[in-house]
Amino acid sequence: MGAREKFASQADPEVLAAMREAAAGEGRQLQAVIEDAMREYLERRATDRPRPQVVQALAESIAEFDSLYARLAQ
User: I need a surface site. Which of 19, 23, 31, 45 has the fewest CB within 10 A?
Assistant: First the structure.
């Protein structure tokens, strides 16, 4: 792990509480969860593609419900 730089920010109290709860539930520090969220955000913006798990879920949904989707599209 490299050097860290402190910064200050503000967040919606409900969002911040949910992040703290998620961090505690995972036994991690809040800063680690926020850093993961920041990295994921930057990756999404850089690739401009859906995440692999989203593509996989779509493929599974199409395989399971293809005939339903075709009927709904009519």
Answer: 45
